């Protein structure tokens, strides 16, 4: 009998924010796949799931290079697929861990697409996205009434981010660790910097909170796991 693949979102950082189902399946897994970059040892997702991992489970790190070269990434995804399929053929149940939610800016999605139509059984378990955790953690309402929320990767072209923020009432801006100065400039342009909040590594021991991004130095060094929540300062009430 072939094994089953589980894509499991472990949430943003706090192990207790994993769902009951996610924790159970991690505890039952034969194999746990932990994505990592070539430059880093260990895995944040693995650390989050650690309290639920049992002694019988084998941990298998798989490298996904932090590059934008399509061929390099494609090779990495195919290699990961082949590793996973080899365990499934052995009848082992495989868990692929991912931060946040598996279907939200996740490496898991690309591996899932390679395996989904190949006859193997797959189940994807949702997780808490970082921006939802940040809103609850800080008491910061993300969106309400008929407001329009934009979810924007800071790695998108500047013109695209500008166009989106021009029409949004509220915004979640992710992956800001490289382009913070440009993001800050655009938030100021649209009167969304004063009331914005940013957290790096929410729910982890070294969490950092930044409130009001209008006066932050543009050269602030940020962790990869940094997310901004912002609201338009002059938006009209519509209720």
UniProtKB/TrEMBL annotation:
EC number: 2.1.1.151
Domain Tetrapyrrole methylase, chain residue ranges per copy: 4-212
Catalytic activity: Co-precorrin-2 + S-adenosyl-L-methionine = Co-precorrin-3 + S-adenosyl-L-homocysteine + H(+)
Residues of the signal peptide: none
Broad enzyme group: transferase
Quaternary structure and partners: Homodimer.
The protein's name: Cobalt-precorrin-2 C(20)-methyltransferase
Source species of the chain: Veillonella absiana
Protein's gene: cobI
């Amino acid at each position: 009998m072939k094994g089953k693949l589980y894509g499991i979102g472990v949430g943003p950082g706090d192990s207790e924010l994993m769902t009951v189902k996610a924790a159970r399946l991690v505890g039952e897994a034969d194999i746990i796949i932990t994505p990592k970059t070539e430059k880093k040892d260990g895995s944040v997702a693995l650390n989050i799931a650690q309290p639920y991992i049992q002694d019988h489970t084998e941990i298998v790190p798989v490298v996904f290079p932090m590059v934008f070269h399509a061929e390099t990434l494609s090779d990495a995804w195919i290699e990961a697929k082949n590793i996973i399929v080899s365990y499934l053929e052995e009848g082992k149940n495989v868990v692929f861990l991912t931060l946040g939610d598996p279907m939200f800016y996740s490496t898991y999605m690309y591996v899932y697409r390679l395996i989904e139509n190949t006859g193997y059984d797959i189940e994807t378990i949702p997780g808490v996205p970082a921006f939802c955790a940040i809103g609850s953690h800080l008491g910061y309402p993300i969106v309400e009434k008929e407001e329009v929320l934009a979810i924007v990767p800071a790695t998108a072209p500047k013109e695209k981010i500008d166009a989106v923020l021009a029409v949004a009432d509220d915004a979640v801006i992710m992956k800001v660790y490289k382009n913070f100065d440009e993001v800050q400039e655009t938030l100021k342009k649209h009167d969304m910097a004063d009331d914005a909040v940013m957290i790096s590594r929410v729910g982890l021991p070294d969490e950092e909170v930044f409130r009001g991004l209008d006066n932050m130095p543009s050269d602030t060094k940020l962790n990869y796991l940094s997310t901004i929540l912002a609201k338009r300062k002059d938006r009209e009430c519509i209720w």
